[in-house]
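User: I'm putting together a teaching handout on how multi-component assemblies are represented. Below are the sequence lines for each component of a complex, exactly as they appear in our records. Could you produce the 3D structure of the whole assembly as structure tokens, so the students can see both representations side by side? Please keep the chain order the same as the input.
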Amino acid sequence: MNAGHWEHYSHPADMGIRGFGATREEAFAQAALAMTAIVVDLEKVQASKAVQIVCEDDDDEMLFWYWLSAVLFEMGLRNMVFSRFEIQAFKGGLKATAWGEPVDVDKHQPAVEVKAATFADLKVTRDGAGMWMAQCVVDV
Amino acid sequence: MYAEKLKRKSVCRWIIEPFGAMRVPINVFADETLVKDMDEQVYRQAANVAALPGVVKASCAMPDAHWGYGFPIGGVAGFDPNEGGVISAGGVGFDIACGVRALTTGVSCDDIERCKESLASLLSKRIPAGVGSRGKLELSPSEMDDMLSGGAEWAVSRGYGSQADLARIEERGKMAGAEPRFVSEHAKQRQKDQVGTLGSGNHYLEVQRVSALYDEGIAKAFDLALNDIVVSIHCGSRGLGHQVATDFLPRMVKAARSEGIELPEKELACAPIRSDLGKRYYSAMNAGINCAVANRQVLTHLVRQVFADLLPKAELKVIYDVSHNTCKVEEHTVDGKAVKLYVHRKGATRAFGPGHPALPADLQKTGQPVLIGGTMGTASYILAGTEKGMDLSFGSCCHGAGRAMSRKQAAKRWHGNDIVRHLSQKGIVIKGTSLRGVAEEAPGAYKDVTVVVDATEKAGLARKVARLEPLICVKG
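Assistant: Of course. Below is the structure of the complete assembly, with chains in the same order as your input.
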């Protein structure tokens, strides 16, 4: 099975993000990397500070959306960018650690803020080979 | 499926009669080329809006309409609370009251040319812009609530601007229905150091030259003459608005489900206007509008300080301040009767015609100034609202050029450096923190704003007053 990875896809107004993984949690973590990569080049971000995130919902798609929204909230509140995510599932939710550092404009050269994760194109699926995919459009 | 049902009603107005679940027709305002290029998804989304409970008259698509989430960007619709009408967080969008404010300056092109580079540098130094920027104000919890209740009026009371500014803002800069208690702590936390920041993406601050006048009478009333220098500020409600939308969307998805409202897209999330959730959202969204106008008011103050330092004779006066992503309670005529409607404008500008009671006395004859932001390389326009627009589109018109290409495509096609160089050859100074950000906002990634504005005028939604060309652009 392929290792987890992420991609961006075109949307007329904004940007689509998509994460793939061997588990649902890996796909969610990869999609969060895709979202952060809209803001900043991930290689420029040192994973030096950890932030804990907990989200709950019984529905995979809604849980994914809450997850991305929580990541955006932490970025906005703490003025941070992240470059690594680890997620553990529990019944009805997830517990995660996001690693990153405070925004340094000279170092990170951030391009654009992500305002919000939207419900547009929101999908969480698993293919025949067992690979998970999580995607949605984000508003920038 | 939808495009083939378009019937031309006039040179720039097309209609799709109701079919399927639609309760009202779709009104599309566009010329032949814009209609041909309009994504089928715009019509599909406008049709979904036309199927929502309590929708009246028509679901409208402005000339710059493009595929959005739930409502199309450039979508306008009015809902009657007496007919079971709904209010939709998706119909307002994430950047609540994102909008444009324009200021006259009283200085000449020569004045600007003499200090263009230093003015551009000082503006970009003093105006917090881009990701990670913070404002100079840090609001305590009680100040936050005062700001959310008071809007631009709060900012003026704290010394950021004057009473005269307020007369030139929709609702005098303060939405009466705002209730900070319905804004989450998360939203307030995100905003605590964000007042007086520009944001990023398509947000900007421009110094512009009036390069053409189309209606000298109205231009004079707006205090605009050829070659005058104008400052335009495009930004919104920052983290607070984004969080309010994020907080209410999932609750509205659930509310719609329990009310039996079918949502072809989750982003159409809505609740009956008269429900508890509908009322809470309306109050929180109004607080979001106040946040956006307070933000533009503080930014205006920062711009005035920069001009005072470099061009002491400058006097910056507000022409007008418009908000694009809103739901406002307004009286409109439906079937010959005056009805209070909840008018959603998502990526559309209010454009009230002459004589409207919401306009200040000195704009009664001209109609409302309508500020249309272009791209950094092209032009912006100032229009005036019309009586005809009141009837056709709930007094609304376009809001900008509208994207023609995604950010991903634009970043692939252009390099930020090339764009900065190309624009500098045209005499435009660009200041931005990110070259990729500049590339994503390349002028070529947008529709031609002139075509959009011409179609708006031909449709009768607003009349052209002045064209503005950028000299300095500070990118968010």
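A couple of points students might notice: Residues 276-310 of chain B form the longest helix (35 residues). Chain B touches chain A through 47 residues (CB under 8 Å).
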